[in-house]
Predict the 3D structure of the following.
Amino acid sequence: MRTPGHDIEMACGWLINESDVFEPGDIATVKEFPGRADEAESVAKELEEIDTVLVTLAPGVQGPRPKSFMTTSACGVCSSDLLAAFAGPKASLASPDWIMDAHLCGAMMDEMRQHQKMFDKTGSLHAAAIFTQSGEFLHAREDVGRHNAVDKVVGKAYLDGIFPLTNHVLVVSGRISYEIVHKALTASVAAIVAVSGPTTLAVDLAREHDLVLIGFTREGGFNIYSGAEKVAI
């Protein structure tokens, strides 16, 4: 389930997490066009308009791999085997002297909130945003699924040529699931700042790869779950 819009970005972001796509030339072509899906097996047996994104990978780039486990939009309850299965980020998350100013957490959250236009209308969409180490806002996206919102901002960064996201901060609404941490690590993000708290598996994965993990970001406070030595309070 997704919220329509920014579909090319979402496709690219999803491929970064699910395949070998990482370098600028790994995606040979990507285009979006309206198509028609034959829903003959559905009860209505009608034709339904859909949007299609066609991605062609460069020769030698491994596409999406079959999963040996079931994922959901929440992915909050997953096997601990996932920790061992993850090969780790392909690039450094941060420079050796990278430090995050804790006072920026609330400001970044407030800035992302200014870009949640659909949330203002519905109260039902999640958001994700990318910031620089100094707190400069780059872009934000909304989606009914927080994982889709993350795919969209990661995909936009890839398409804009600011990838990998070393030294950058991912800000998200809602809780921090294992899947969100996994997506951040595959994009080489240095830190995650969230409105709510993380799952245990999310904390374990973040700590294993030295990812800064900050949750329950509210006015005047937050919790640090991983990477406290990289946060200047």
Notes: The chain has two domains: 7-57, 81-232. The radius of gyration is 18 Å. The chain has a mean pLDDT of 88.
